[in-house]
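Table S4 entry, Nucleotide pyrophosphohydrolase.
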Amino acid sequence: MGNNKSLRDMQAEVDQYISQFKEGYFSPLAMLARLSEELGELSREVNHFYGEKPKKSSEKENTVEEELADMLFVVICFANSLNIDLQKAHDAVMHKFNTRDKDRWTRIGEEGEDENGNN
């Protein structure tokens, strides 16, 4: 698979990886626990890089990018284990944001305008 992978490509790649093991995917509760664990690791890295808590000299050097990738892997595993097409789910959520929430935020270039375009 190339560098321009779709969500479906990523789900297929993860499924191919997981399918080689007898254990397969974890249960939904175990997957949620793994996702929570990865979120904690991401939180720790964000706090080290952007917060007030410096890293201990004995701590492994991770990056926010690595931790986000770990979370993405677990999210894909979770979706695969429940037969959820993330591409379809993403399209649905973007439709929701572009319809229901289309006027929720101030668009760039519209500062100070009301809902009728008046200043």
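The first helix runs from residue 7 to 18.
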